[in-house]
Task: inverse folding
């Protein structure tokens, strides 16, 4: 779509087609794709000592920035890199369900792997450091989850 008129026509067509039952909606298959992508990309970072050292030395502002990065990368990948419209999807409190799922998958996959591999105990991490390491890992997890959701 090169012109604003063409993009507008595409939006109108999508809105019209969304009323039909066979139109592709966000579902369990999308969540499964997000889970696979999220786990694949973050696995190596959960068990890397350098990530835990970085996390131990991060301050509150740096942690907040990593959380913002996860949100920005996720939203940008789903709705800016793709020709997908957030306002056309099912939402909860105005937030697209696909985006909510992406964030949950991103943070949960890192958390699960961290505790399955016993990384906090292995690296002698405090609860605060563990949260920070999860936030770092979520940056990579959201890239994998959003990419898998967008490609497949």
Result:
């Amino acid at each position: 779509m090169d012109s604003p008129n063409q993009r507008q026509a595409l939006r109108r067509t999508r809105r019209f087609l969304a009323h039909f039952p066979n139109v592709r909606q966000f579902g369990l298959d999308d969540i499964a794709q997000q889970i696979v992508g999220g786990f694949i990309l973050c696995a190596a970072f959960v068990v890397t000592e350098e990530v835990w050292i970085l996390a131990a030395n991060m301050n509150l502002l740096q942690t907040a920035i990593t959380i913002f990065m996860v949100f920005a990368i996720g939203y940008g990948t789903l709705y800016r890199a793709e020709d997908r419209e957030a306002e056309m999807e099912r939402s909860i409190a105005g937030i697209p369900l696909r985006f909510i799922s992406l964030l949950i998958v991103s943070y949960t996959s890192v958390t699960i792997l961290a505790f399955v591999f016993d990384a906090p105990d292995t690296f002698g991490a405090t609860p605060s450091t563990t949260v920070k390491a999860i936030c770092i890992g979520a940056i990579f997890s959201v890239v994998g989850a959003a990419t898998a959701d967008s490609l497949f």
Remarks:
- The two ends are 21 Å apart (CA to CA).
